[in-house]
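Handover notes (outgoing to incoming on-call)

Open items:
1. histidine kinase: sequence verified, structure written out, both below. Nothing else pending on this one.
2. Nothing else urgent.
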Amino acid sequence: MSGVARSLFGRRARLRWIHLILGGALAMPYVLVGSVIIGPATGATDVFGSFPLQLASFGVGLPIAAVTSLFPLTRPLESAAVRWLCGVEADRLAFGPAGTRGEKGRTAAWFTLHLGFGGIIAGMSLALPPFAAVLIVLPAVAALRGGRLGLPEVFDHTWVLALAPVAGVASLPALAGCAAGCGALLARWAVPLLGPTPRERLAAAEARAADLAVRNRLARELHDSVGHALSAVTLQAGAARRVLDSDPEFVREALAAIEDTTRRTVGELDAVLGVLREGDAPGTAPAPTLAADLDGLLRRTRAGGHRVRATVDADPEALPPLLSREAYRIVQEGLSNALKHAGEGAGVEVRIAVTGGGLEITVENPVTGPAPSRTGGGHGLRGIADRARLLGGTATAGPTTAQTWRLHARLPMRGPV
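histidine kinase C-alpha cells:
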C-alpha cells in the first residue's frame, strides 16, 4: 500500500504533476488563439461557456503550439524541465537546439504532448477538487441541494446523496492517478523525443575526447616540470647541507642550481595554469626544448651530487620544435627517475642520437637495492609512453640487470635533421 501511495503522492509524482501544470499554463495562450478561431467559425459569442467549444479551442491550439515549438530554445528549455521535474538523467537528454528536420519534428511532437497532457491535467486539477469537496459535504449541507449549484436533479435522491461523499473522496486519488500516469508516460517518451541523436552523441564524445586529451597533456606537463623540479631541488638542498662546512663552492653551485630550477619551473607552471584559467591568456613562458635547455638540465642535475655523462650525437638546433620539446620532457623524466632510484653520487648515462630516421633517447642508471618493478606503471613512465605514442614512436623502461635501470625511447623524425 505504501508503494501505491508513493507512486501517487511521492516526491517524484508531485514534481511530474508540477511539470504537467506548467504544460497546462503554456497551453493557455494557444487555447485563447483557438477560441478566436472557433468563435467566429461556430457563431458562438461565449466560447468558454460551452465545454465542447473549449475542447475545440484546445484542439485548434495544439497544432499552433507544434509550429511555435520550432523556436530554437524550445528543446533546451523542455529538456531542462524534464531533467529536474520528471527525473530523467541529463545524459539521456539533448540540451542543444534542434538542428535537423527529424530533431525538430520530435521536439514538436514532445511539445504538443506536454501541452496536451498538461492542459487536461491542469483543467482536472482546477475543477475536480472543488467538485469533490461539494460531493463530500453534500449530504450534510442542504443549501447545496435543490439545484442551487446547478447539480442534476439526480443528486436529490437519497441513494445518490449517500454515495456522493464516497465518489468525492474517490475522485481525489483518481485525479492523482491520472496525473501520475500522464507524468510517467511523458517521462518515458522524453528520451526518444528529446534525447540526443547519433550525430549529437558523436559530437559530444568527440568534445569529451578533446577535453580529456587537453587534461592529459596538462597533467603530463605539470608532472614532468614540477615533479622533476621538486626531485632536483630536494637532492640539491640535501647535498648542499651535507657539505655546508667542507665545500662552500659546491654549496654555492647547488644554491644557484636551486634558484635556476625554481625560476624556470615557476615560469612553466604559469604557462600551464594560464591554460587552465578560463578566459585567461596562456602564460608566456616558452616550453623547454633540447636546443634551449639540455645543457642547463644536465647542469642542474649534476648540482644535486650525481655524475651525469651525456653523449649527444645529434644537433638539437636542427630538430623539429615539437620533437625537441617532447624529447626534452623524456630526458627530464629519465633524469628524475635516476635522481629517485640511483644511489648518492652514482653515475647516470644519457645518450641522444639520430639513427635510422629516428631520434633515440637512452637513460641508464644504477639502482640501490631491488630494481623498481613498475614497468609501464608510475605517472612519469606512463607520460613518457604517451608522448612517444603521440609522435608515432615507442618507449620502454625496466631493469636490464639486477642493478641497472634503463629507459629507452625512439621518436620518428618529423622534419629535416
